[in-house]
Amino acid sequence: MKEPRRFPFVQYDVFTSRPLEGNQLAVFTDARGLSDAEMQALARETRLSETTFILPRDAATEREHGTKVRIFTVQQEFPFAGHPTLGTAFHLHQQTGAALVELDLQVGKIPVRFSVDAAGKTFGEMRQRDPEFGEMHAAEQVARALGLEAAELATSVPIQTVSTGLAFIMVPFRRLERLQRFNLDFTRAAEYLSKTQGRFFYLVCRQTIAPEADLHARMIFYNGEDPATGAAAGCCTAWALQHGILQSGQRALIEQGIEADRPSRIYVHGSKTGETVGDIFVGGNSVRVSSGEFLL
What we know:
By secondary structure, the protein is α+β, with helices and mostly antiparallel strands. The protein contains 7 helices and 18 strands.
């Protein structure tokens, strides 16, 4: 009988320093030999919001371009996603001890820098691509797509598509209580999204549960509720800077995942000079929770 191919993986909880919180991520540590179809099938098998595949290359190539990584959801490959970037970089940092880990993703090279705080916890922070601000959306139309009354959305800032590698529509809620009990009809929402450049809605509110948090967020998509969405948090940071919710250089905390019983803490900051928004950083902790291998 032919010996099966073995593909080891490790699993992390990302944007948390406590096991069994944050956003789950499976990292295949050496995906050489896997086809695209096999990567997609393995992502379906893990049934996590995202699974990453590290494709090691020679040292010179990695020094120049970074470590090649591919990101899959249960349905498709993504060019960029936040918690897979942070969690995969955390794994590489743990393996090498490098303070700077650079990932070669479909959107280009994404640097993640690591430090250790006074409590001995490792903190990673990625610099995302400069934001692209897209279309504004009518509150009445978005409310209808989400099954809401338009009055339940905040009107002091616009509903807008923003991308730092993956486009999200920022939707501000007026009240935390309404955001917490919100349930998404994804079929209806997807019909609206299909007519826009936005891939998903990112729902935010300036009222928070934790007193130290600056924004409360939720992101619900075809795989259920995402406990922490680092790509959307970067978009949200740019949007908040553009419209005066956050100030240039302010270090802010986005709380997410509470409604999914997987509380996450996403630390963000960026800069605004004149009308230009950039230097978008998204960071947090990660903790390793399991490991194993798949036999194919």
